[in-house]
């Protein structure tokens, strides 16, 4: 995760949102769904972190 202290600011805010906290579970869910409904294509598509600082954008 990225915070304001790492970009040289005096205060920090760490936000743990849906992407960081749920991505591993969604990957597992996609793999499990493949076993339940093999005739339907299921693919996990990772999401990028939506929060960033202008001083240190997410690549």
Which percent range fits the helix content?
Answer: 25-40%
Count up the domains.
1
Give Rg in angstroms: 16 Å
Oligomer: single chain
Strand content: under 5%
What would the principal axes of the Cα set say about the shape? elongated
Q: How widely separated are the two ends?
A: 13 Å
Helix/sheet category: mainly alpha
Spans of at least 5 consecutive residues whose pLDDT stays below 50 are none
Secondary structure: number of strands: 0
Count of discrete alpha- or pi-helical segments spanning 4 or more residues:
1
Overall mean pLDDT stands at 80
Series of secondary-structure elements, N-terminal to C-terminal? H
Main β-sheet: number of strands, strand sense, barrel status? none
Salient structural properties:
32% helix, mainly alpha
3D architecture notes:
The protein has 59 residues and is mainly alpha-helical. The protein has one domain (1-59). Helices cover 32% and strands 0% of the residues. The protein contains 1 helix and no strands. The chain has one helix at residues 18-36. The mean pLDDT is 80.
């Amino acid at each position: 995760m990225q915070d304001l202290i790492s970009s040289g600011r005096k205060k920090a805010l760490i936000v743990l949102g849906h992407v960081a906290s749920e991505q591993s579970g969604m990957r597992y869910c996609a793999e499990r769904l493949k076993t339940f409904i093999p005739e339907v294509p299921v693919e996990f598509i990772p999401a990028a972190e939506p929060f960033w600082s202008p001083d240190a954008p997410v690549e």
